[in-house]
Specification:
Number of domains: 2
Order of helices and strands: HHHEEEEEEE
Largest sheet: 5 strands, antiparallel
Structural class: alpha+beta
CATH class of the largest domain: Mainly Beta
Shape: rod-shaped
CATH architecture of the largest domain: Sandwich
CATH topology of the largest domain: Immunoglobulin-like
Radius of gyration: 34 Å
Number of helices: 3
Helix content: 25-40%
Distance between the termini: 97 Å
Length: about 170
């Protein structure tokens, strides 16, 4: 038994290769080091996300014929028609698309100056205007209802009432 005690004493006399303090401090440094950054937007993820967003926008806002539109219970079909001879482009902006351009384009399929589009919109009252050739904001003279645009100068927004397609 004395041999074992002598071995234990000798073992305690020699300094350890790594002290407890150095191991603890190494762990503290490892835990406090900034985590490696993970990329949220890699090219494949970004491309997939953009493709999905474009597809959703196309499904919701690309003008189609009223026969191909299928509104939900609280939605209706809005038809936009404007006469703009010589125009290169016509789009509709309004409260239904947060006045964002580039989302709802009208078409002049016969090249007769009559531009048309249909879209599914939530039932209710919506304000809108046409944007002709990307510059000129035009009130729809055929709207029948108008409200002040809120910017002064006597300009008005057209008003459209969308009724639910499914009547209960």
């Amino acid at each position: 038994m004395t041999d074992r005690l002598d071995d234990a004493i000798e073992l305690l006399k020699t300094p350890p290769a790594l002290s407890v303090e150095s191991r603890v401090m190494a762990e503290v440094r490892r835990m406090s080091a900034p985590a490696p950054r993970r990329r949220l937007f890699t090219w494949p993820r970004l491309a997939t996300g953009l493709a999905l967003a474009a597809g959703l926008a196309a499904m919701l806002l690309i003008p189609r014929s009223p026969q191909t539109l299928t509104p939900g219970d609280a939605e209706g079909i809005a038809q936009f028609v404007g006469q703009f001879p010589g125009a290169r482009s016509v789009e509709v902006v309004g409260s239904f698309n947060n006045w964002s351009r580039g989302l709802l384009h009208l078409r002049d399929e016969n090249h007769d100056g009559i531009w048309r589009a249909a879209a599914v919109l939530p039932a209710g009252q919506h304000e809108y205007m046409f944007v002709v050739d990307g510059e000129r904001w035009v009130t729809d003279p055929l709207a029948g209802r108008f409200v002040d645009d809120g910017f002064g100068g006597g300009r008005e927004n057209s008003v459209l009432i969308v009724r639910p397609a499914v009547q209960r």
